[in-house]
Amino acid sequence: xxxxxxxxxxxxxxxxxALTLLVLPLVLLLGFWKANKVAVARxxxxxxxxxxxxAASPAAGAAETASSMTMLAIVATxxxxxxxxxxxxxxxxxxxxxxxxxxxxxxxxxxGFPVMTAxxxxxxDEALQDEIAEWLSGQEMPQLHLSEEQWRALILATGVAxxxxxxAGELMPxxxxxxLLQLRVLLPHDWPADLRRxxxxxxxxVVSQYGWPVDKIAVPAIADLAHAPTPAALLTQLMPxxxxxxxxxxxxxxxxxxxxQESVDRLAARELLFTSSSQARGQxxxxxxxxxxxxxxxxxxxxxxxxxxxxxPLGEQRRDSSADEARRVEATTLLKLSEQIAKAGGIELAQxxxxxxxxxxxxxxxxxxxxxxxxxxxxxxAADDVIRIGLGSGSCxxxxxxxxxxxxxxxxxxxxxxxxxxxxxDPYLRAxxxxxxxx
Length: 439
Description:
Layout: H1 2-8, H2 14-51, H3 58-69, E1 72-80, H4 87-95, E2 102-108, E3 114-117, H5 126-138, H6 148-168, E4 181-186, H7 193-208, E5 217-218, H8 222-225, H9 231-238, E6 249-257, H10 261-269, E7 287-296, H11 297-302, E8 309-318, H12 332-344, E9 354-357, H13 363-376, E10 386-388, H14 390-393, H15 399-415, E11 419-423, E12 429-437
Parallel strand pairs: 4-5, 4-6, 9-10, 9-11
Antiparallel strand pairs: 1-7, 1-8, 2-3, 6-7, 8-12, 11-12
Helix pairs in contact: 4-15, 6-7
């Protein structure tokens, strides 16, 4: 058009300029983009359709049966998050772009300015706090001191444990002795041993109030409580062995809270608090609790748990250096993990319908996640199919990754497709897991 106007010595009007130099190029670009998305989706559907084993293949059926024996079934989930007390509520807040941290009305930084936090309204319950304190006194632990943050975490965990304990009754056999219920509690690493023991005992008591015999609830030995594994490692330990399948029921609960001036001051002293000058490494204090009720696949099918989803395989890998100090963003570790668990799960990455990650606000973590999704799984829409939990949960230990798994169960059932779960908020650890529908 520029050449044409110059050759004809015409002076274009404002409307002609806007149409030819702005509107028309945008229309063309959108057309190319849409055509590319349609082509990618068609190719992905072709690959996904071609990768599925046929019912007439005995070898494929045997492989599927063998792999399902080494998976877990997520029967139920429970959440106490700053933006919802269930997976459905949190998913709705995320869809509405409401699951985000905000300025705190109580906590301030060294300069007296409000800090960004992710605070839960369920973390304050004075009646429950008095009940816990009274019960602990009866267990000969009256001198136990809990900080504000520890009380908040334990109150949130109590709600999650009670909800999952009430659902565990669905897996109780009508006749005979119930199997051992494995109770695993993921607590913050800086909690002392006596507090870990007290919190685990209290949550065991909470679960037993809903009908599961207390002598049939198994918790780790006291010496093991101080060396709690990561969520991915713990869940891998619970996976049933293919060689000796046995009925298994487990409740896994994670809880943590950094909503307190003591935690804010500690992060600020280490230059890890999110402020305008420390955005690259800064953390947003958060809190929450998340839990899963798990069983083996055979038992889930026998009891007809309609809400169940398959969990597994899981994997994790440690980085050579801290992501906080890295100058260049790379997703090699995440890509390798994702390819490994997809292969172990018998699917192609092209069949992944969604990614749910514990990624928060830090740009290098976001770019790392996008570097995994965009070139490797191009059928995903960055806005609708890549979900970041950390934006609304803040920093709170193992809780965001457990929340990822809880949400993935919901999304897998809604979409009838595999969901890839990613953990990349930790400076060193990278984790990946697969959640898919039972059918």
